[in-house]
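Our platform keeps sequence and structure together, in a single record for each protein. Such a record has a labelled line for the sequence and another for the backbone structure tokens. Nothing more is needed to write down the fold, since each code stands for a local backbone conformation. For reference, a complete record is included directly beneath this paragraph:
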Amino acid sequence: MGYRVVDTESVAPEPDRPSECRKLSEPGGFDAAAINRFRAEPGEQIPLAYHYHETQQEAFYVLEGTLSVETPERTYEIGTDDLFVVDPESPQRAHNPADADGPVTVLAIGAPPADGDAVPYDPDDE
């Protein structure tokens, strides 16, 4: 048997991200999925770019605030304690709008782990 407790504040934020991103999979010894905690101030986005994944399914669980997720069809508003799921090959851009009342904190889970699987998406190309 094995158990781990990870103090998420002890995990250094990733450099060069548009919002605070703490990658929790490795410190947790969890290799079946990517687990990241994001904190985005008003005007910050969570991913590096509008994108989709070829094989990864993503889930965003909002811990605090309201997350906006832009898709080609519409923008979704996901509130505290709600879950938003993105299937493979579905473009999205998660962000905290500039006019938001405060930060948004999100637990993002992606399976299978997909480092390098993100494909940039430009809605103007449609």
